[in-house]
Amino acid sequence: MQTEKSMGQALVMEREQPYPLPENWCWTRVRYLTKNAGKGRTALPGMEDLYLRHYFDTQLYHSQTSSREEGDCVIPLPNPKEQRRIVACVQGLLVNLDKMAQDLGWLVDHEKDPMMAVFQESLEETEKTRKFILDQAFRGKLGTNKPEEESAVELLRRLVEGT
User: Fold this and answer.
1) Which pTM value belongs to this model?
2) Per-residue pLDDT tens digits for 16-68
3) Fewer CB within 10 Å: N-end or C-end of the chain?
4) CA distances (Å), 9 to each of 24, 84, 103, in order?
């Protein structure tokens, strides 16, 4: 009975969900996935730490922190396999994007011709691309979303039960 009550609190009601998620994902709150808060927070066992770290860089997360406590912020939750696929995909894309931004930054700092404005604009676009990648990842559009895999609700149940 206690687990069901806790699950009811951990799942985010439909009216509070920012957008629809893939079938085997669910919405929950940050407090059910982490220990501690702020800079010292760590992922609970069963959660990919980098999945959470990337989430904390999203516009969705930052838009919530101005109006609520960190633990009350909602987060899209896929199963652990999907979290790992998302992290791998995001890491690969961001490494390439960071390298491009570094190269563009060097060009902006060292070029003294009319192309500098183009390099500066391209550098600004890399930040928009970063935000887009993270947004897509947390909407379930970068992983494989295999319906036959465990539902995120089962992961959340284990986290709530502490097993």
Assistant:
1) 0.83
2) 999 999 989 999 999 999 887 666 788 888 899 999 999 999 999 999 998 88
3) N
4) 19, 26, 47
